[in-house]
Design a protein that fits this description.
11 helices, 14 strands
Length: about 300
């Protein structure tokens, strides 16, 4: 079977890069087959960004993984950001990238560029790569069929972030329809205003992906990141915490184990988990085929919050 051959290529070496012998390869299949059965027919939402989106080799590995998952009957929904590409386009037109408290200030001109890059260039590039790998992919934005509705982001600091929004409603019918036809929906995170169809908002892709996972009653929500997962010691990759019960998350934030840029990623996992998604994951998108390792092996990769 083509899908098994793809899996074999992806996981046929050990941690030192040596080819597996027949006994080791049999072990891989024994581990993988129950997961094939477990996930077939289930929805998995993947937030795609970071190095996995910038590095051509990693990008190809992600596309192969997603097409494989789709081929064996797992319903994958891919939600993507595109901050670095937006920065490049702003540079090209001579407009400064401005960030306030970690959020991109989005005036009307910047919003046009965000839409052009996310819903045009990047979304169609990803769809094209998936099609090239044999997938049936369809590009969407949050605007299509009113998939994402948002209101202007208002924080306690009263800072004006421009056309930055927070999702208030997810209308997943168009995504469900595509999944029923065995398509791979590829979603860029631009949303319609909740009360004004003429207004669009720039949405944080991690948060949008989490809320889409809840609306679809997904079995898994996976964030591909630039770090191994949650570490006990940020300077020691061997201190990875593989499993975190969601009720322990506040304590880990309080004691500083979860800190800095990891906090919003964990908070997105909590949004999905509290919304009914049984398994949420933060995994290292720099590891080739990390999606397959997470889905089809006993060890998994990264951190699971459940």
């Amino acid at each position: 079977m083509e899908d098994l051959n793809e899996l074999k290529i992806a996981v046929s070496t050990d941690s030192r890069g040596r080819l597996l012998n027949n006994e080791q390869w049999s072990d891989v299949l024994i581990q993988a087959m129950p997961y094939f059965k477990q996930w077939v027919g289930k929805v998995v939402v993947v937030k795609y960004g970071g190095n996995a989106m910038l590095n051509d080799e990693l990008k190809l590995a992600v596309m192969k993984d997603i097409v494989l998952l789709n081929t064996i009957g797992i319903h994958v929904v891919l939600v993507h950001g595109g901050g670095p590409e937006i920065n490049k386009m702003l540079d090209k037109v001579g407009k400064e990238s401005k960030f306030i408290n970690g959020l991109r200030y989005t005036d009307a001109e910047t919003m046009e560029i965000v839409q052009m890059v996310l819903t045009g260039k990047l979304n169609k590039e990803i769809v094209g790569l998936l099609v090239k790998e044999g997938g049936y992919a369809v590009g969407l934005s949050g605007v299509d069929s009113g998939l994402l509705r948002a209101k202007k982001l208002e924080k306690a600091d009263k800072v004006d972030y421009g056309f930055v929004g927070e999702v208030t409603e997810v209308n997943p019918e168009i995504v469900k329809s595509l999944l029923q036809s065995n398509a791979i929906p590829v979603i860029s995170t631009v949303a319609l205003g909740e009360d004004d169809d003429s207004s669009c908002y720039n949405i944080n892709a991690d948060t949008a992906a989490a809320k889409i996972a809840v609306a679809l009653k997904a079995e898994k929500f996976i964030q591909l990141t630039n770090v191994p997962g949650v570490l006990k010691d940020i300077n020691d990759v061997s201190s990875l915490i593989p499993r975190i019960p969601k009720q322990t998350v506040p304590k880990l934030i309080e004691d500083g184990t979860i800190a800095g840029g990891m906090i919003p990623k964990v908070e997105c996992c909590m949004i999905a988990s509290k919304g009914g998604v049984p398994r949420t994951h933060i995994i290292d998108g720099r590891v080739p085929h990390s999606l397959l390792l997470e889905m089809f092996s006993d060890r998994g990769v990264g951190t699971m919050i459940f």
